[in-house]
Amino acid sequence: PCSEYMFLDDTACNLASLNLMAFLRNTPDDKVSFDVAAFEHAVRLWTITLEISVLMAQFPSQRIAQLSYEFRTLGLGFANIGGYLMALGIAYDSEQGRTICASVSALMTGVSYATSAQMAAQMGTFPRFAENREAMLRVIRNHRRAAYGEDAGYEELNITPVPLIAEGSPDPELSVAARAAWDKALELGQEHGFRNAQVSVVAPTGTIGLVMDCDTTGIEPDFALVKFKKLAGGGYFKIINRMVPTALERLGYSDRQIEEIKLYAEGHGTLDGAPTINHHALREKGFTDEALQSVEQELAEAFDIKFAFNKWTLGESFCTETLGFKPQQLDNVSFDLLAEVGFSRDQIDRANVHVCGSMTLEGAPHLKDEHLAIFDCANPCGRTGKRFLSVDSHIRMMAASQPFISGAISKTINMPNSATIDDCMEAYMLSWRLGLKANALYRDGSKLSQPLQTQLLEAEDLDVIAEASSPAQAQVIAERIIERIVTSRDRLPHRRKGYTQKAVVGGHKVYLRTGEYVDGRLGEIFIDMHKEGAAFRSLMNNFAIAISIGLQYGVPLEEYVEAFTFTRFDPSGIVEGNETIKMATSILDYLFRELAVSYLDRNDLAHVEPDDLAPDSIGRGQARLPETDNEAQQAVERMASKGYVRSRFLVIKGAKGYGKTKAVSDTMSETMSETMSETMGATSSMAAAGGSGGGLQVVETVSADPVSVSGAVQTGTDTRLGNVRQAKMKGYEGDPCGECGNFTLVRNGTCLKCLTCGGTNGCS
C-alpha cells in the first residue's frame, strides 16, 4: 500500500506527476518565475487523461474495480520541488521555500477540481456524488480557506491546517493564481458537482523520477549533492545534482568560480594534475603507461580512487610480476594497493578529493557561507560534510503542502544514524500537530541495504576495525557495510539422478531434464527446444546453465519460481504431455510451474493433480498411514528421483501379521498359496507414487508368512476390475448424478450428462 493514497478501502487510483523544473521560465527582466499558464494547462490535460484511465485500469478484485468506478479517484501530483527551489536559489528549509511549495500544491489541486467540475457538467458527476455532496463541498471550502491564509473558521476540523501565507512570497503571481483556482473550483462544484471524488496526491516518484529527468523526487529535498544509485542487477552509478551550477549562476557567481566549485564537489575524474598521487608519482612506483591508461578508464565513474587500483583493473600479472605482490594479498578484501606501494593516508585522501571530488560544497572555493543553506540535503554530503536538513524541515515542508492535497503525501523523513527513540516520537507528534496524514521515518543506515548511499566505509572506520576487538569490529561493519554475501558452490555428484519431462507448449516441443543431489534437492536443469532456431536454443541452454549455477550457489528454487512463473511471452498456450500443467503463459512459466510442482509440492501452481485424473479416485487415506521409517526413507531417496514422483513416495515394507486370510481347500487357492510363498519370500519391498507430497511415507503391509487367497476373492477382484475398465471405456467421470444418483455421468462438451436419466449439470 502507498502512504499517499488514503481514500476509502477497496479503491485505487492511477498516478501521474509533473516535473516542476519544466515550468521554470525566464522573465523579460532577466529573472525567473513559475510558468502559471503552462502549469494550469498541464494540470487540466492530465486530469482529463487520468479520468479516461479510470475505465482503462485493471484491478485485482471486482469490489475494488466497482468502488473505483463509483468514486473515480485520481492521483495527480508533482515532483522535483527540491531541485526547483535549488535552481531558484531558495533554501528548502525556509519560509520562502515552503510558500512556493504550498502555492504549487494549491494551484495544482484547485485547477484539477475545477476541471473535474467542468467534466461533470458534460458527463455527469461520479456515481456516489449525490450522497456525499455536502461533505465534499465542505472539504472544498476548507481547501479554499487555507489558500486564502485563514487560520480559523474551518468546518468540522479539530486541527487547523497550515495556511498559505502569500505575503512576502518570492513568486506573487503563483500565489494569486492558486487562490483564483480554488474560487473557480468551489463555484463550478456547487453548480455542477465533481466528476472525481479525489484528484491529487504527492507520490514518491522514486526510480521513475530518473526517467522524468528529475534531480529530486516528489516533495523530497535532494538526498545528497552526489550520490550513488544501487541498481537492481548489481552495481552503482553516480548521480550529480545538475541544479548546483544553475543555482550558483542565479546567485551571481562567475563562470570560472562555478567551474571551480563544481570540480571541488564532483572531482576531475583523472589523476593528471592531482596532488601527491599523479602520473609522475605512479611511474616512480613502477606503473607503466598501459597500467595508467587502464586506471584512468576506471576513474571516470569511480567514487573512490582505491576502487581503480586493483588486480582486475591493472591485471594480476602486473600486480605480481611488476609490483611484487603475492596472490594472497590481492585476494584480501581489505588490501589497499596505494598504501602498500608507499602512499600515506593523507596523500590518498588529497588525491581522492581531486579525482572523485569532496561530494559536498562545504569548504568549496569562492562559496559564501550565507549560501550554504541553499545546498543543504537530506544527509551530510560526502566524507567531510557536516550540514544536513533537520527532521523538522521535512515535516514543515509536508505541512505546507498537505492542506491542498486531496489524498496524502508519501515522503521519507530522513533522520541521522544517531537519532534516538525520543527523536522519533517528537517527529510523530510534530506531524500530528501540523495536520499531516502520514509520514515515514528512516534512520540512515538502519537497514543492511538501502537504495541510495552517500559514502562508503570511511577511512577512520577502517582504522577502528584494524585496532578494535572482535565485538567492536562487528558493530562498525554491521552499521556501515551495505551488503556482502559470500558463499561456495555445492557441486553435484558425477553420477546423479533426475528425470526428463517432454511437453508441447503452444505447439512447441520442450524437453526438461533435471539433476538432483543425493538428498533429492534440485541442482541443475537442461532445456531443449525441438526444431527451434539456433539463437533461441542457445539462449535457453545458457539460461538453464545460469539457473543451475544459481541453484548450486544456494539460490532457493522458490526465488526462481516466484520470478519466472506468470511471465508472458510466446510460445504460450495449451500444454500437452504434462499430466498436471495444462496452460502456460510462456515457456519459462511452464518450466518453473513443473519444477515447483515436482520439487516444492506447489500444487497451487498445477492445474490438475495426477491422483485426480482417475475417475475412481476417492482420496488418499493419509490419516491411516503410520509414521515414516527413516531407514526406508533414506534408501528410497538414494534410488528414486524426487522430481520424477513429484515429491510423493509410498514405501511398502514387509511386516508380521498383516494380510493373513484363512486358506480354503480348493485346488486354485492351494496353487496360489504355493506360488505366492515361493515368490514373495520372507520380506518384500516396493515403492510407488502416492500420498499428498512433502516427503516419504512408509506403510508396513505385507506378511512374512505365505498368503492364501480364495477363489471367491479372486473372482470378486476380477469382476470389480472389469467393471472399472468398462466404466472407463464408457467415459464415466466417476461423479454421481444430481437427479438419479447413478454414477453414469459422461462428458458432454464442457458439461456432464447422465446416461441413466438424461439429466445434465445445468449448462447443456
Give a quick account of the main beta sheet: strands, pairing sense, barrel closure. Answer: 5 strands, antiparallel
Number of helices: 26
Mean pLDDT: 81
CATH class category name of the domain at 14-209: Alpha Beta
CATH architecture annotation of the domain at 14-209:
Alpha-Beta Barrel
Strand content range: 5-15%
Shape: flat
The total count of strands amounts to 19
The CA-CA distance between the termini, in Å, is: 44 Å
Low-confidence stretches: 456-460, 479-486, 620-626, 654-717
Structural class: alpha+beta
Percentage of residues in helical conformation:
40-55%
Strand order of the largest sheet: 12-11-10-13-14
Question: How much is the radius of gyration in Å?
Answer: 36 Å
* CATH topological fold name of the domain at 14-209: Anaerobic Ribonucleotide-triphosphate Reductase Large Chain
What do these coordinates show?
- The chain is an alpha+beta fold and 764 residues long.
- The chain is 40% helix and 12% strand.
- The chain is built from 26 helices and 19 strands.
- α5 (129-147) runs antiparallel to α6 (172-192) and α8 packs antiparallel against α9 (255-266).
For this entry, give a set of tags.
single chain; 764 residues; alpha+beta; Anaerobic Ribonucleotide-triphosphate Reductase Large Chain; five-stranded antiparallel β-sheet; three-stranded antiparallel β-sheet; 26 helices; 19 strands; flat
